[in-house]
Design a protein that fits this description.
This protein is mainly alpha-helical. Helices cover 77% and strands 0% of the residues.
C-alpha cells in the first residue's frame, strides 16, 4: 500500500473509531509520519477530507460503470445503499463539512450526474432516474442513522417498481 493510501486508510479508521474527524496530528501519528509528512500528500485538511469522500465515490462509480455494461444501474445503485466503512467515514466528513458551510467536491457532483444519466438510459425517463437516485440516497441515509441496512428484498422490490412503472406520456 502506498503512503497516500495508508494516510487515507488511517484517516478512515480513526474517523470510524471516534465518530469525528481526527486531527492531522492524530492521522500523522497513526501512519508514523509527521504532520508535515501528511501535508506532503494532502496540502490541506480540505484536500484530505475530499480524498476520503472521493474514495467512497470511486467505489460507487466503478460499480455503476460495471452495472451499465453488465446489469442494472438502478438495482446496483439501490444495493449500494447498504453502507460500508468507506460510506460511514464519508458521511462523517460530509456532516463536518455541512457544519462549516463546505460543499461537495466537483468530482462527487459530476459522479452523481453520471449515475443518474446511467439510470435514465436504463429507465427511459430522467424523472424516474432522479427518483431512483434520491431513493438510493434516502436508503443510505436511513441505514447510516438507524444502523439498519435495507434488506435485499426491499431493494429488489423498489428496483423492480422503478423499472416497471409505465413511461410517462409525451
Amino acid at each position: 500500500m502506498d503512503q497516500r493510501s495508508r494516510i487515507l486508510e488511517t484517516a478512515q479508521q480513526l474517523t470510524l473509531g471516534s465518530g469525528r474527524l481526527p486531527s492531522l496530528l492524530e492521522i500523522a501519528r497513526g501512519t508514523g509520519l509527521t504532520k508535515q509528512g501528511v501535508l506532503h500528500y494532502f496540502p490541506s485538511r480540505a484536500a484530505l477530507d475530499a480524498a476520503v469522500l472521493l474514495r467512497a465515490v470511486d467505489k460507487v462509480d466503478a460499480a455503476m460503470t460495471a452495472a451499465e455494461h453488465d446489469g442494472s444501474p438502478t438495482a446496483t445503485y439501490l444495493r449500494l445503499s447498504v453502507p460500508d466503512d468507506e460510506d460511514r467515514a464519508a458521511a462523517i466528513v460530509l456532516a463536518a463539512a455541512a457544519r462549516t458551510g463546505g460543499t461537495l467536491p466537483d468530482a462527487a457532483l459530476a459522479a452523481a450526474g453520471r449515475w443518474e444519466s446511467m439510470m435514465t438510459r436504463e429507465l427511459g425517463d430522467p424523472v424516474r432516474a432522479e427518483v431512483a437516485r434520491l431513493t438510493g440516497d434516502g436508503l443510505l441515509a436511513e441505514a447510516l442513522v438507524t444502523g439498519t441496512a435495507p434488506t435485499a428484498d426491499r431493494v429488489e422490490r423498489i428496483s423492480r417498481h422503478l423499472r416497471d412503472v409505465p413511461a410517462p406520456r409525451p
